[in-house]
Design a protein that fits this description.
Strand content: 15-25%
Number of strands: 5
CATH class: Alpha Beta
Largest sheet: 5 strands, mixed
Shape: globular
Structural class: alpha/beta
CATH superfamily: Glutaredoxin
Number of helices: 5
CATH architecture: 3-Layer(aba) Sandwich
Number of domains: 1
Order of helices and strands: HEHEHHEEEH
Length: 153
């Protein structure tokens, strides 16, 4: 009985440590993106991002990715580092980075592939989305201008 108690304790300890490590890794990944991209503020909590969107009257740029997705990494390391893209994200959007597998978010986001980007209004209504990696920053800039024009009506 004593052995069983010790084994259960060790099992619970290992599970708790692995969950903390996963949260730490996700936080480190978000911090690395913030540093490398010069985006002023990147949210990783859905509710906090939409509170900021309502407070600042801005749409939300939501990037769904996964830790091991090579196309997600390329998007973060190339397109999202473009100075003009960063300028738009800083000035016109609330930026929300979510892990498709680990983050909490409403089921209405039917994320079947990553990277996937949604743009919503401040009230969580999905306006448009892009699936996949787009290398050319000007694709995003055209998209941002379209969104800005349409949401201003």
């Amino acid at each position: 009985m004593k052995r069983l108690s010790v084994l259960l304790f060790l099992l619970m300890f290992v599970v708790a440590c692995s969950q903390n490590e996963e949260k730490k890794n996700n936080s480190q990944e978000t911090n690395a993106i913030i540093k490398m991209s010069n985006i002023d503020k990147i949210y990783s909590n859905y509710k906090e991002a939409f509170l900021a969107a309502q407070k600042n009257n801005k749409p939300v740029f939501i990037l769904f990715s996964t830790k091991y997705c090579r196309w997600c990494k390329k998007l973060k390391e190339t397109t999202l580092k473009d100075k003009e893209v960063i300028k738009y994200l800083n000035n016109d959007f609330i930026v929300l980075l979510l892990d498709k597998n680990y983050s909490s978010y409403p089921l209405r986001y039917n994320v079947t592939a990553v990277p996937t980007v949604y743009i919503t209004n401040k009230d969580e209504k999905v306006f448009t989305s892009i699936i996949g990696y787009h290398k050319n920053p000007h694709d995003y800039i055209k998209w941002f201008n379209y969104v800005k024009t349409e949401l201003s009506h």
